[in-house]
Design goal:
23 helices, alpha/beta, 48% helix, four-stranded mixed β-sheet, five-stranded mixed β-sheet
Length: 473
Amino acid sequence: MRTTLTTANGAARGARSAGRHTTRTTRAVLAAVTASALALTAAGCGGGGDDGKEGESGGEGKSAVTVDLPKLTGEKLQVAAVWTGAEQKNFKAVLDEFEKRTGAEVSFVPTGDSISTFLGTKIEGGQPPDIALLPQVGALKQFAAQGELKPAGEEAQEQLEKNFSQGWRDLGAHEGKQYGVYFKAANKSLIWYNTAAFENAGVEEPGTWDDFLQTARTISDSGVAPVSVGGADGWTLTDWFENVYLSQAGPEKYDQLAEHEIKWTDPSVKAALETLGELFGDKTLIAGGQEGALQTEFPKSVTQTFAGGDAPEAAMVFEGDFVAVNIASDTKAEIGTDAKVFPFPAVGEESPVVSAGDVAVALKDGKGPQALLTFLASTDAAEIWAKAGGFISPNKELDLKAYPDDVQRDIAKALVDAGDDFRFDMSDQAPASFGGTKGEGEWKALQDFLKNPDDVAGAQKRLEAEAAKAYKN
């Protein structure tokens, strides 16, 4: 998902170079997704990968072991991540395999959305987890600059060099040192829709923003709220903004805003907020209106779109490929039949293409944390979750046969084939206090904007004030 931060260090420069390539990667992903109508199955997105047989990785038959791990009998490790529900279950299957191979005992701790706040509190109390999976590049930079992260060891770096392109390695580095392993990637430029709602309204998949709004109005006239917005989770609103901004302002402006090289009071930000306000400012287009959206968390934004059968509470929901996990786990809708997807509509000349990922970092020294980093950088670990479904790995050596269906194979192949040619989620690049903290920074400013979409100037001022404070420039 995914890439610029500052030009003060080599890692950021490499990431910046990757970020300023064309956005071919996610375009290819979107094409693969749309062509196949994301015909995932509920079984493919559900559990799996945890049958407990030694030497297996959650699918049929044995998988060859590609990485040697030390014996860690009696050692206890703690891993922290934001994942809940099916994602947490599937990641625990990965940790189970690590336990079987090493003898270590691994516990998983959910952090909630504000992982930087969670980790900061744990660090201050002298009890950080051994490993954390960070959804923000900015958080990695922050904790690395503070000296709280432990560099990846020789074994982990060997796996990274063998299995990952330079761009993904750069994203996990800071000031010339490798800290992180990008274990999971995501495509965050998709609109999921209830096919019954579209059929009842007599509409088709829109390709442009204007068409999208017109489609939404027609669906509203049919008696169904067009768009479900998970506004209680501020990160969903940053994704809305980033997709509009990237398509409308273009990649160069996107990179500049990600670096805070231009201010949030820039005219390009005004234009994007005004465009987004065309949706957010029309209560008839949002399930529950603005107030309802602000009380809707991301999982509910998905279920209210697909749990109602032929009478859903909403017709469309915007978010990444991981929506498939929520649909399969929390509703009876069948992906590819009841639930389909189309690319985020083009505001400018092209549809936007935004990606993201979760990076594993060590916060404690020792053989155990380094062994887990090494394992997460291997194809062995990626294969377990890939077989379970609802997962895309940037690991280029992972056999595509590990994915449960052709659709996910196509998505993964497009990502890997593009090498370093991708662009990363803007808020995830920002300092965590601005782009990744619940109730603060960009999250809070965009929630205020959703509440009052007419106040574009006020939203810009709040965003710039928070950004200046976080970037310290």
